[in-house]
Records
---
Amino acid sequence: MTQLTVDTLKQEILRKLISDKGREVKEATSKDIYYVLASIVNEEIKQQWFQTRKNYRDGKNKEVYYLSMEFLIGRMLASNLLNCGMLDTAKEALRELGFEPEDIFSEEHDAALGNGGLGRLAACFLDSLASLNFPGHGYGIRYRYGLFEQRIIHGNQVELPDYWLKNPYPWETRNEEEAVVIQFHGDVHMFKKNDGSLEFEYRNTDKVMAVPYDIPIVGYENDTVNTLRLWSAEVIHQNNGDGLLEASKEYYHDLDHQHSIEQISGFLYPDDSSYEGKELRLKQQYFLVSSSIQNILKHFKQNHHLPLSRLAEKVVIQINDTHPSLAIPELMRILMDDEGFSWDNAWAVTTNVFAYTNHTTLSEALETWSEEMMQNLLPRIYMIIDEINERFCKGIWFDHEELRDSISELAVIAHGRVHMARLAIVGSFSVNGVARIHTEILKKKEMRNFYTLYPEKFNNKTNGITHRRWLLQANPKLADLITDVIGPQWVKRPKQLISLLKYSNDSALVDKFDQVKHENKKVLANYIHQHLGITVDERSIFDVQIKRLHEYKRQLLNIFHVIYLYNELKDNPNQDITPRTFIFGAKAAPSYHLAKEVIKLINTVASIVNYDPDVRDRLKVIFLENYNVSLAEKIIPAADISEQISTASKEASGTGNMKMMMNGALTLGTMDGANIEIHDLVGDQNMFIFGLTADEVLHYYQHGGYHARDLYNTDDRIKRVLDQLNQGEFGVHNIEFKDIYYNILYHNDPYFVLKDFEPYLEAHELIERAYRNRNTWLNMSVTNIAYSGKFSSDQTVQEYATEIWKIKKV
Ligand SMILES: *Cc1c(COP(=O)(O)O)cnc(C)c1O
């Protein structure tokens, strides 16, 4: 890309400020500057975007399409500047013009088109695909409302709509000429043609227009710009000449109709890993896959002079969790009904095109749909799924006698429900889990019958994160220090961070890492002061748990420990402890009662602990509201401890753990998800592992033998904390936290909070001691950074590319 200097960029900003906004710099707002800078970046990008698309059109390359209901991309200005090689120049230019870069970047509203890890993974993958020169694109939905904005009012979570498009979004381009029609409902009519084959005709369908908005995905200093295509649902406007409406009755009917169509891309479902069986959600899923598959086939025909029977040579489609698995019957439908394929030929093509990523084994998150709803909303798709199911079940009956008794656990349609994971497995050539332990649990437990049927389909791809956003952009001080120490090659080859190991015992050098961490902690302390009016001690341990609020993630274990520490300080006010700041960020699904109770509890404990003079600033509890990508970028560089304390076997991978490791935080975690792979690399001596193992947890679930009440009765520390909840010590009303109390004692603590309490306490004691030994601590921290290159999504995407997608760099 063109190399702008600070001076030319400044001049360009000033020139555009006048031409676009009619203002001089002294009258300009941060927002003016944001738009002007975005527009300059866009000009840089557009040229490369055009060129990249042109290259892909020559038809030589196999391309991957990543279908996902969620893309949690966050802000784009700084990351686009970074990838264009302009970030430092731009920051300098902004400062010279009298603006703080962070103020300009934060004018952009986070694009929160995702809930958490799954959506953020999709965003990291796009960044890596482009940065590695892979021809790979995302397809998603342009929700008008993203994930709700969280406010904390009197300790409670309050949800506000996230109308992120209120101001123009500078990164998107509407592409009306690529719009396609999607059909819902209606009747399917079957005709026998002369040659004996069947023809299908759909009548009385509800038609919706899908209009794409394209967002450029800029590769890191490599001139590749891929595309994230987000579909928007619109009414198909019939041109009836004068366009006048005949009667007001019809006018209102039309408005209703328009509203119901626009609802399809209206809002992101805010349920994290469990889903409400809402027809609208099913509509959204079909809307995404039908528009994307139509578009993919159109481009295949334009770019490749090959018959559709050879689609799999040039196209591979990754489906991110089961949400887009209707893409499988949708491709079958188009191949058979529009392109004249026989069932067998269509099936041969389809099952060589799709690959499926599983993200969870939580049973409440395994998606199923009512057969009836599916049949009504998507009659032709239902027929095809039914046929897939028939053939699949027959195959088992005749070829796998050993599985006959398990047919209802394998069938795509069983007991009146369509099972999306089963559809995805049967229709894909690859099924992958997202961390080693997760894939093993899929093979040995959750999907063992499918693994018996299709051992060759199953494979592991451990998640990753883009080190460009999560280190270079979020923590430039650390990135610069690393480059000072080991040179700049790690930026293109993150595994070279391993060269840092040589220096992890050099005390003069690790002091510099300490300084960077300290400066980052100061910045976060300022943010906390600004937003909550609370002063935190920058020399205290910043102990961070940031992630969606879920019982299995066990924020409850964390806050129970805080209550325990508080009790200890009340009993022994002169106890000498290392000051601690516990930092939380978490959204709860609006309908998840218990999760919201935990948020309330954290805030209530905070309001007591933070203002108790006996505590004397040795303990602070901070809940930062509205956790999202931009807030994560602020917190992570300042973290000393990364809390990854899920009930073992429950967290498929986790990616927050990787982000914090890469920023020098030490993991306090269970042997779960990718924590295990972090442990493989850094060992016991460089992280704090505690608690039940996955095998132990699974054994308890299967055979019983755990009695939470026994722990309550025998461990005074536990009894005291629970009684405090029950007796209203933390809360205005004494019934406030009774549900938490009951869940633990009467539902036998389903996530083993009490069981892991003591080992968790002990791990915290080790942390306290380790933190006092500065050199050891810093050595551990640098060791973690050194090994974190393995968790760059560049590595993950490279593995997908060679082992699943079989695509090559352009
Ligand atoms: C990385 C990330 C997540 C995932 O965090 P986990 O700790 O893996 O659950 C969720 N939300 C945001 C905003 C993130 O950046």
---
Amino acid sequence: MNNYYTSTRNKKIQISAKEAIKKGFADDGGLFVFPDLNKLHIDVNKLINLSYEEIAQIVLEKLLPDFSNEEISNSIHNAYDESFDTKEVTPVADVDDFHVLELFHGPTSAFKDVGLQMLPQLMKNVLEANNKVMILTATSGDTGKAALEGFKNLEKMGITVFYPHNGVSKIQKLQMTTTNGSNTEVTAIKGNFDDAQSNVKKIFNDEQLKKELGLNVSLSSANSINIGRLIPQVVYYFYSYMQLVKNKHINIGNKINFTVPTGNFGDVLAGYYAKQLGLPVNKFIVASNENNVLTKFFNSGIYDRNMPFFQTVAPSMDIQISSNFERLLYYKSGEDTDYVKTLMDQLESEGKYQVSDEILAEIKKDFYCGFSTDDEVKDSIKDVYNKDGYLMDPHTAVGYKVMRDYQAHDAKTPMVLLSTASPYKFVKVVADAVMDDIPDDDHEIMEKLAQQTNVAIPDNLEKVWSLPILHEDVIDKSDMKSYVKSKVEAEFYDKN
Ligand SMILES: *Cc1c(COP(=O)(O)O)cnc(C)c1O
């Protein structure tokens, strides 16, 4: 049995899961993937009545073969015992004729918590005795806070988050700037998200800076292409399936569908991994917003990033390159790394590539793809609330609309819709859809929405309004490198 990860662009690379987590992505620019994924079988019959954490243990042992069972177990407990507001971690709600898998019960009320609570725990087991690591994250809103919460107060690790000044919502800004913890750094930069992102990349590649930081300090990222974020997401596909079995909606072995609001393709790819491991799934419904590069790919076989960019009401899905799609191309091409490399080189040089008819057909066996406009998002939020009393956030509503489109072809297969954020995280759009007379202030909107709908405000979003602001830095985008250097010195050299 193979126990190594390889690169999507070069099958000669062999690397352990621990090394893959440490590095993030391969030196050739490819992503780390596990060959022959479908040979690692998980028998759903053995998952009956297991808790979320017990299922996580089974899934992670399979996919992280060089971690000891104890390392995995400690990581799971540290990640999920205390930080989620329910023991179930990702509970399933029954709504109308479908099931909502709620991924927003973590410390920041967004689905990224599932991966970002786990990644730092896994990283702990990867650092050698004297090593210290500074995590750098550029964020357009959600990832920054989820990363801060994941890495907060961990020994030998620090985290620095850059967000665009005036480029995130009021709640998102408050969430980040009120973060406590001994090792957390947050600063606004005078620039946009792309400036933050491209400067962070430059910092990673700065050899001079590496020398200055010293041998024992490395820089790393909490990027969504890291297998340490991706693999924990496989767990909730198994867990939600077992919930449907437990509640007698299906018999064990029956196939179900999953609808997934999609940006970088990490979440839905984790579902495909679950299917490869043996979860009985018919189709994954991939839902995009008006940045619908993927829908066009499904219709034509051409992936073309040269499309107008839209700022939508589901901003965490405003993405033109779904990085994790490269991993699907690897599996669907029969693990042909030369082929994937050719496509990715074309994407780099021309901004587009075209797959063969055979590969497109292979992809369509497992996936359906569609998109939702902003107006449709608001209609969906309103319709589902009025009809079923269930309040969805805009990202989830993108999924809902595409799910209903798909069901015109297949209404019978049981359906799970993944919900990726609390409605209170994007409260203006949600209030707009279900309320009249909307106050100006986000905090007031929250309170009013809670009163009207009886849906509780998550603790962290309720409390954030009264917390002290701990991070007020605003820096020039050209000063990011020196900022990192001074924070590394403060974290790792000046403290005791
Ligand atoms: C990141 C995010 C998504 C998209 O997930 P991907 O794994 O990038 O496809 C969807 N909804 C919300 C709220 C998110 O934060």
